[in-house]
């Protein structure tokens, strides 16, 4: 259950939450920006619920946690995703908090960077999870594991590129 919750949280809901903001995303390009922002919040909230649930499941099942590369990166991803969500609340109120364009840009860039750092930490943690002995035994094929790792990184980099394109165009509108 840990795997299902965390993979769905990070790799599906979080990624869709990032992609929905892009006007180039195939399923959301026709949706008005205000609704894409609402979808973004819904996907990110679902992602955090799934991630926390998956983490709690693993903490309950194991005596030792966060002592491997997989666990440490997962903890970093959890902390970053929580910071990103909290910072998202600040972004929503940025114009109320400051009239300075520089401050608003700083707040938004911080949100963007914590979000994308979360995505990369989660992908690295997932790849270390693929490398765990129990997963290797279950799959039984090193080529399949390497393929899963490659797919994870291609997907993560693709979402990241889409994120950077969208973010840079949004920041240009602020300037």
From TrEMBL:
<keyword id="KW-0812">Transmembrane</keyword>
<dbReference type="GO" id="GO:0046872">
    <property type="term" value="F:metal ion binding"/>
</dbReference>
<protein>
    <recommendedName>
        <fullName>ascorbate ferrireductase (transmembrane)</fullName>
        <ecNumber>7.2.1.3</ecNumber>
    </recommendedName>
</protein>
<dbReference type="Pfam" id="PF03188">
    <property type="entry name" value="Cytochrom_B561"/>
</dbReference>
<dbReference type="InterPro" id="IPR045150">
    <property type="entry name" value="CYB561D1/2"/>
</dbReference>
<dbReference type="GO" id="GO:0140575">
    <property type="term" value="F:transmembrane monodehydroascorbate reductase activity"/>
</dbReference>
<keyword id="KW-0472">Membrane</keyword>
<keyword id="KW-0813">Transport</keyword>
<keyword id="KW-0479">Metal-binding</keyword>
<keyword id="KW-0408">Iron</keyword>
<dbReference type="GO" id="GO:0016020">
    <property type="term" value="C:membrane"/>
</dbReference>
<feature type="domain" description="Cytochrome b561">
    <location>
        <begin position="1"/>
        <end position="168"/>
    </location>
</feature>
<keyword id="KW-0349">Heme</keyword>
<feature type="transmembrane region" description="Helical">
    <location>
        <begin position="41"/>
        <end position="60"/>
    </location>
</feature>
<keyword id="KW-1133">Transmembrane helix</keyword>
<keyword id="KW-0249">Electron transport</keyword>
<feature type="transmembrane region" description="Helical">
    <location>
        <begin position="72"/>
        <end position="91"/>
    </location>
</feature>
<dbReference type="InterPro" id="IPR006593">
    <property type="entry name" value="Cyt_b561/ferric_Rdtase_TM"/>
</dbReference>
<feature type="transmembrane region" description="Helical">
    <location>
        <begin position="111"/>
        <end position="131"/>
    </location>
</feature>
<dbReference type="GO" id="GO:0140571">
    <property type="term" value="F:transmembrane ascorbate ferrireductase activity"/>
</dbReference>
<feature type="transmembrane region" description="Helical">
    <location>
        <begin position="143"/>
        <end position="165"/>
    </location>
</feature>
């Amino acid at each position: 259950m840990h795997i299902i919750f965390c993979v769905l949280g990070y790799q599906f809901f979080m990624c869709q939450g990032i992609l929905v903001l892009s006007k180039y995303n195939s399923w959301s390009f026709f949706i008005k920006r205000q609704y894409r922002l609402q979808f973004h919040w819904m996907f990110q909230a679902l992602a955090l619920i799934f991630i926390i649930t998956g983490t709690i499941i693993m903490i309950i099942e194991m005596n030792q946690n966060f002592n491997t590369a997989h666990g440490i990166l997962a903890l970093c991803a959890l902390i970053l995703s929580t910071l990103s969500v909290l910072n998202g609340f600040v972004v929503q109120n940025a114009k109320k908090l400051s009239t300075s364009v520089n401050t608003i840009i700083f707040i938004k860039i911080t949100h963007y960077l914590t979000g994308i750092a979360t995505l990369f930490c989660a992908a690295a943690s997932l790849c270390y999870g693929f490398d765990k002995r129990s997963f290797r035994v279950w799959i039984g094929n090193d080529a399949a594991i390497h393929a899963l790792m490659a797919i994870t990184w291609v997907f993560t980099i693709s979402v990241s590129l889409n994120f950077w394109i969208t973010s840079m165009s949004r920041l240009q509108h602020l300037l």
